[in-house]
Design goal:
32% of the residues lie in helices and 31% in strands. By secondary structure, it is α/β, with parallel strands linked by helices. The protein folds into 2 domains: 211 residues, Rossmann fold; 59 residues, 2-Layer Sandwich (Alpha-Beta Plaits). The strands form 3 sheets. Strands 6-7-8-3-9-10 form a 6-stranded mixed β-sheet, sandwiched between helices. Helix 2 packs parallel to helix 4 and helix 3 runs antiparallel to helix 4.
Length: 296
Amino acid sequence: MTVLELKGLTKRFSKTVAADDVSFELREGEIFGFIGPNGAGKSTTLRMIIGALTPDAGEILMDGTPINKNRHYRQNIAYVPGDINLWGNLTGEEVIRFFMKVRGYTDMEHKDRLVERFRLDTSKKCKAYSKGNRQKVALICAFLSDARLLIFDEPTSGLDPLMERNFHEEVTAAKKDGRSILLSSHILSEVEKLADRIAIIREGQIIETGRLETLRHITRTEYVVQAEGDLDALKELPYVHDYEVTETGVHMRVDNDAVGDFLQALAPHQPSHLESLPPRLEDIFMRYYEGRREQS
């Protein structure tokens, strides 16, 4: 079942096109990763979804209904931006309870569990909170909600590694509950770890959408080779890139459609060790931008 669908979303600010014909869909019980560099159009797209910006063109549907025909659709959304502003003179506890009252949530046991999980001192006033603690308040409120769609824009900004792990576990639990998660992050390993599918956005345009396994064909596999002889001849091959000699062996990246040719070329060198490192989401992402720079 499709929970959220974007059809040709476009948003301009003067002469700048922040989002250009953006289209994708998010299914029930799915974690959808949304990646791109700063200024690519991620936050603009998310703000259109929550109604903070009005698209110049295109359509947003929730459960198959355009959001402009359902003014209550936001009740099914919990949104956490990358930088949180809270009421400075209220304590963390007061802010959380306020949001619980506004949204009609009464599960105090769940609230206490999340506060303990994220190690938040709720007795402090929000003006004394660090960025990370402000982020924790927003995350706790989002996970407390019964929203069917959770939208996170750089959610772990300001969090330490332990809190990042706790966030990942809460997201996974939300998915198991059947909720849908739209995750925008510049931490590519985070998206790679959590997302079922991803969309890559560049200069306001979606340039690829799909499961990670189906996107690996556009990148290169890294090999680490150890051999008695000199391997320098391999770096002249057109499908070998980023050749580097290190203490652990010779590292090189090979085009995936030329792996057979590479292994044939390597065989005469009688390697004593050959290790392949699978492509990472970061490799896929950087490959796009390297290609862009080479063309410009």
